[in-house]
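dumping this here before i forget
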Amino acid sequence: MAGIAFRFMKRSSKLISNSRLYSSTSAAAAAKPNISPSSRMERLLAGTVIGLVGGAYVSTIDEATFSGWLFTASKLANPVFALLDPEVAHRLAISAAARGLIPKEKRADQPILRLEVWGRKFSNPIGLSAGFDKNAEAIDGLLGLGFGFVEVGSVTPLPQEGNPKPRMFRLREQGAIINRCGFNGEGINAASKRLGAYYEFKQGGKAGPGVVGVNIGKNKTTEDAASDYAHGVHALGQYADYLVRCWTRVINVSSPNTPGLRQLQGRKQLKDLVEKVQAARDKMQWSKEGPPPLLVKIAPDLSRQDLEDIAAVALDLHLDGLIISNTTISRPEVVQMNPVSEESGGLSGKPLFSLSNGVLKDMYILTKGKIPLVGCGGVSSGEDAYKKIRAGATLVQIYSAFAYGGPSLIPQIKDELAHCLERDGFKSIYDAVGADCR
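structure:
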């Protein structure tokens, strides 16, 4: 039923986009475009499926309003996905996004949410974190949901199956997910072909706005992590013109599901790693705008000394940014009563919020607010995103809440965030960054 609904709504949306739009005033009614009986029937059916009063009005509603209806209607699919195995549901979601069977945001973001970081313009600070679109299959569809940015990956040099299944577990009552996927993916060759195709698509003016990040990881059996990260930079460097404009390169040194990865976060190890990757990046030919920014993603399960080491390396090597944080291997008290919490792997979702926010605030203070931070972990509302920003984040990422809430969560978070900023008298995102640390 959900699939039928989205097909009707998608086709209806295209009809609206290709027609002359008008309001419900009498003057606009006189300019009503000639819609064939079959097309009119599709839009009537879309209105019926949405379940709102006045299905006939769908044939005359403006594009932005109709887009809002589609996001509301997308909630119909949530119970269906909840019945499926988590990994099956994930696969279906990616497939739907890749095929355009999801809503497309037609409403402009509120001006207070706009910002510029690393010379890249973001229509809003809400992004989708790595792990959702591992193989760069659905970039345009996901950005079309209204995210300010989407991070694909982690992309490893070679394809790998990851850990044995089952490897994803829902803790629905706690709004959490445990995963031990282990960087399963199709590898750099497959991802780079899709990224190249998207680049051509965007160059042709067919793609919507939005910044794309590429999260590069290491293969499970690789001992020299720096070589894998450098390989990722080189293999995707052929898209330099595109990367320069709107890409964020992320080094993942924090996954709990790849052996030895978190040991890379010591001061010497991290410094050596970042220097090698920076060198690999800087040897390449880039446009006059220079190379893409380089970020490092860190874990939330770190000691004070670990945080001080990372901050020192970040400042010393002029790192472009830090993502805080990845999943946690700890099990906060709120999830301990759930038998699923005994599964090994990284915990994401609401229970991670306080832990990741504490690390975020510490890193903002340790880096003296000089390095842009991306807040990730447990965000499920605009208020949560606002707290991340006040704790020091310039940008915010979500994952688990999106897996549970679906497309309708995106406009909700943005509206709530704008309200929080205006409520407290901030004129922009910049004004609120680190407000709780001053």
